[in-house]
Fold:
Amino acid sequence: MTIQLVLVEPAGPLNVGSVARLCANFGIDGLRLVAPRCDPLGDEARRMAVHGVGMLERAPIYPTLAAAIADCSRVVATSGRGEGEPLPPSPAGAALRWLLRAHDDASPSQTSALVFGREDRGLSNDELLQAGRILQIATGPAYASLNLSHAVAVVLHELHGCRRQAELVPSSELRGPGGPEDSDAEPCPRGLLEAALADAEALLLEVGYLYPHTAHARMAKLRGLLQRAQIRPQEVALLRGMVCQLRWASRRPCASGEDH
Structure:
């Protein structure tokens, strides 16, 4: 399993360079950038990256978060809002243990992602709904907002500790009975799930269940439901098959006048 660290629309080259250095410090496999609002290869970023410059130079740039995590089945997104989250937030340790725990039959090339939002406003609800877990860093109540690179440092230090613990203790002993970490099912890759949701939205608009002005809000609720369920690839295939059959049936000419 590989872990990619994803920065969404970073605006500060010093932060981007610092994060690249942290990725090198803590053995993160790759850095992905979504529509950066600065030059990630400029002098300031390179100066802060130090021996992480190679991480910067290899970092691909994506137009959207959905594109950046399309190949990822386990996605943890960070948020510091504390309330109004579209999914229940998890403590850092629980979210990161879930990120590290892949299904026994999963391919070694499986990719997971750790996502950080913009310096000024973090991740939107739509972006948070693309994650399987929302991670919150415990801070003092007086001032909860962290600098981007500081937040990355805290989370990667916690991730490093979880990795060390996983090497020493069997994974079955790390899971609490009856909790959300008990499921061994590997979630569906994000790209497949988003494609299924796009098919479903098109059908529901076509048959009049959704209306253009309310479709976004209703689909957000459906996306949240499927994220909480951690839907599997076989279940996504079932959903897409149902949608295709329903589309075919909805377009079939009315048979009421046919001879029997």
